[in-house]
Structure formats: structure tokens, C-alpha cells
């Protein structure tokens, strides 16, 4: 178990393999554990770096307001701690939001950017937006995390043959610290950097499940705003694509990374 401290918070991280550094960052209520089906294959080719964001997994859960920019600062501190230089980055859901934040604030940190089932903004603009987020906000505060976990697992892994995944994810979700989970949930609402993503110039891949929470059309719209970005849609998948379609996900990612530049374009200026 490896740990480092940033701004008074002890953060858990893991490293595997050798080669160019490749960061995998989890989503809300998740942790490094949820990349278990990527580690063996990706570590054979890259130096994998996994981080439990503050409030998640085995990292500390300080009693404070969390923010996407703050999560990005934790990741940047880890990259400095490990002296990685520019990295390939893969972020799922909330982890993808952190990736967008890092890309627009510190483009020199990235060799490439892969966003999985995420978005560059979560804005409450319409009456329906407000209603949907108010409902989720209320349920997150009223229901026990075990109940939330069972409901999410059933939605993410509905097939009979996914019973093992359902049980595993429900159990992992129940271990979340509720106060930290709610603070992370609040960090997402009304966050956004969409107006800045047109400045991203590093190789960018957007991965969308065909049955994600948000439609493929949303990803098509913001992919078009990023110069040179491309969209890959993975069939028969829901929000947790790295878990429900690990082979297709891994191959899609590896093909993209293999085509990305192997050296920085100038001094730390790959993105």
C-alpha cells in the first residue's frame, strides 16, 4: 500500500508495470479496485498509476467541501510526487470530469486524454434538470448507502450472468463514507469547463457506452468541440464500461494509446 500527503490529506495510490505513465481515475463512490479488469493487460505495456481520490477508498475522508478542481490538484500533486512527467490519462464518470479539469488547467501534464461515460459540465439549467438533480440529491441523503448500492448495481449490471458483479459492486458501495460521498456528489453539481475544451490539443478519445446514463448524442456534441477528438461507442454496455465490457474497453484504449505520440511535443507541451 502506497500513500502520500497533499494539503493535510493522506491519499492512497497504486502502481503497476513499466513504461509510459498511464493514470486510471475512478468515478463517484468508487476506488482503485474498480480497475481490476484493466490492471493485468495495461500493466504489461504501461506504468499504471491508480489513485483513490480524497473521500474515496483507502484515502482519507476529511470533513470539508470537495471540488473537481481540488481532486485535480490532488492528482497533480501525485504526479509531482512520482516525478512522472506528462501522462496518458483515463477517467471514468467523475474521474473523467477531473481529467477535463486537468486538461484545461494543466495541458502540459498530458500525453493523451481518454474520457469514459462522462461530460465536461454538469449544469442545472432547466426545470427538468433541477427536478432530476433534486431527486438524486434527496435520495442520496435519505437512503442508506447499502440501499443505494443495491439499486445502482442492479441498474449497472442487469443481466442474470452479471450476478457476481452486482453483488461485488453493492458490497463495495456500502463501504463508502456517506458524508464524503455526499461531499463528492455536491462537487459535481454545477461544475463545468465546457467553454474551455476547445483548447485541448492532445490526442483525445471519448468512450461512450450505448446505454450510458446520458445519450451518445451528448458525447457527439462535446467531442466535436475538441480538435481532433474521436468518439468510440461500446455496444451492450452501461455506465461501468470497464467492468461490463472489459475486453472491448481494453482493446479500444490500447489501440488509441498505441497511435498516440510516444514523446512530448516540446517541453511538457503535449496537450
Descriptive report:
This protein is 40% helix and 17% strand. It is an alpha/beta fold and 271 residues long. Helix 2 packs across helix 3 (94-105) and helix 5 (145-156) packs antiparallel against helix 6. It is globular, with a radius of gyration of 17 Å.
| Helix/strand class | alpha/beta
N- and C-termini, Cα separation: 31 Å
Q: How would you characterize the largest beta sheet?
A: 8 strands, mixed
Question: What is the oligomer described by this structure?
Answer: single chain
Query: In CATH terms, what is the architecture of the domain at 2-121 and 192-259?
Result: 3-Layer(aba) Sandwich
User: N-to-C SSE series?
Assistant: EEEHEHEHEHHHHEHEHH
How many E strands? 8
Arrangement of strands in the largest sheet: 1-2-4-3-5-6-7-8
The H-level CATH homologous superfamily of the domain at 2-121 and 192-259, spelled out, is Alpha/Beta hydrolase fold, catalytic domain
- The number of helical segments is 10
Q: Specify the CATH class of the domain at 2-121 and 192-259.
A: Alpha Beta
Rg? 17 Å
User: Globular, elongated, flat, extended or rod-shaped: what is the shape?
Assistant: globular
Beta-strand level of the residues, as a percent range?
A: 15-25%
Helix content: 40-55%
Mean pLDDT: 93
Low-confidence stretches: 264-270
Protein name: Alpha/beta fold hydrolase
GO molecular function, one term: hydrolase activity
Keywords: Hydrolase
Pfam family, one: Abhydrolase_1
Amino acid at each position: 500500500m502506497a500513500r502520500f500527503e497533499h494539503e493535510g490529506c493522506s491519499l492512497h495510490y497504486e502502481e503497476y508495470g513499466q513504461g509510459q505513465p498511464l493514470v486510471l481515475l475512478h468515478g463517484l463512490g468508487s476506488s482503485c479496485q474498480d480497475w481490476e479488469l484493466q490492471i493485468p493487460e495495461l500493466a504489461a505495456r504501461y506504468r499504471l498509476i491508480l489513485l483513490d481520490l480524497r473521500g474515496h477508498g483507502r484515502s482519507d475522508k476529511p470533513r470539508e467541501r470537495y471540488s473537481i478542481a481540488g481532486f485535480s490538484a490532488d492528482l497533480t500533486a501525485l504526479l509531482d510526487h512520482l516525478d512522472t512527467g506528462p501522462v496518458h490519462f483515463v477517467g471514468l464518470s467523475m474521474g473523467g470530469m477531473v481529467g477535463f479539469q486537468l486538461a484545461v488547467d494543466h495541458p502540459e501534464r498530458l500525453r493523451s486524454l481518454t474520457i469514459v461515460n462522462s461530460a465536461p459540465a454538469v449544469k442545472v439549467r432547466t426545470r427538468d434538470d433541477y427536478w432530476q438533480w433534486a431527486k438524486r440529491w434527496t435520495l442520496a441523503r435519505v437512503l442508506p448507502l447499502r440501499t443505494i448500492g443495491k439499486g445502482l448495481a442492479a441498474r449497472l449490471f442487469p443481466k442474470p450472468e452479471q450476478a457476481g458483479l452486482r453483488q461485488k459492486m453493492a458490497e463495495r458501495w456500502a463501504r463508502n463514507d456517506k458524508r464524503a460521498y455526499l461531499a463528492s456528489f455536491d462537487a459535481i453539481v454545477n461544475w463545468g469547463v465546457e467553454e474551455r475544451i476547445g483548447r485541448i490539443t492532445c490526442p483525445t478519445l471519448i468512450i461512450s457506452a450505448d446505454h450510458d446514463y446520458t445519450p451518445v448524442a451528448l458525447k457527439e456534441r462535446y467531442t466535436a468541440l475538441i480538435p481532433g477528438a474521436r468518439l468510440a461507442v461500446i455496444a451492450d454496455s452501461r455506465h461501468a464500461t470497464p467492468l461490463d465490457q472489459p475486453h472491448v474497453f481494453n482493446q479500444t484504449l490500447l489501440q488509441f494509446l498505441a497511435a498516440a505520440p510516444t514523446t512530448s511535443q516540446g517541453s511538457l507541451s503535449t496537450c
